[in-house]
Amino acid sequence: MNEPNKIPVHIAVIMDGNGRWARLRGKERYEGHLAGMDALRETVKNAADYGVKYLTVYAFSTENWGRPQQEVDALMDLMCKGVEMETPQLMEQGVRVLVIGDRSRFSDKVRAALDRIEEQTGRGERMTLALALNYSSRSELTAAARILARRVAAGEIAAAEITEQTIAETLFTSAMPDPDLVIRTSGECRLSNFMLWQASYSELYFTETLWPDFGKEEFLKAMEAYAARDRRYGLVK
Ligand code: FPP
Known about the structure:
This protein is an alpha/beta fold. Helix content is 43%, strand content 15%. It has 7 helices and 6 strands. A 6-stranded parallel sheet has the order 3-4-2-1-5-6, with helices on both faces. Helix 4 (108-120) links the parallel strand 3 (95-100) and strand 4 (127-135). Helix 3 runs parallel beside helix 4 (108-120). The longest helix has 25 residues, at 69-93. It starts with 9 loop residues before the first strand and ends in a 10-residue tail after the last helix. Residues 15-20, 33, 36-37, 40, 59-60, 64, 75, 78-79, 82, 131, 186, 211 line the site of farnesyl diphosphate (FPP).
């Protein structure tokens, strides 16, 4: 039986290594993303079964627009098809989908698909799956600063009333607790503009495994590593 306080409430994942996984097999990059989608489906199930309440995945960063157009198009296509195909199973599993990030840059078709999956899964209570799409932490914090500056200028709040709590409530992640654990696959050891505010006290877990190979065994290894960590939040035990 898993000890309840050793189960992360919120896991955030930087799903990295799809391209390398494809190259190693002589495949096209988009085939790596397709395999990444399979790993995502499996991780959603593993996390929900393990008792995780929030799973956030970095699926498309604001920087990813700079990739070759063909790859961006393939990722947009995967988003639309993925939403269509995965919705019934997510509903069955009690998984609610939430999109975090600036969706204004997506096409009408992608935006409609994102709205649809949020609406159709909205009653799921077992786990929340947050898809970080056109997300970056710095742009999120910049947007929050603008919102709060406008509220101060309008006389709704005083500058001195802006607290850490006010800022947290102005971020895309306002409806979620901070991540307990951030996982990054493929051997890169950095946060790459992901959850910089929210991950202040998160445990970080890096694995050499490429994202498409991140299956149940790898997931459980990460859970084991998390359970062995001693979280002090700057205090003395
Ligand atoms: C990073 O691997 C992965 C991405 C930028 C996309 C993540 C997408 C998925 C896992 C598929 C699910 C998709 C959506 C849109 C819901 P990389 O391409 O940077 O790999 P590399 O560093 O080896 O090149």
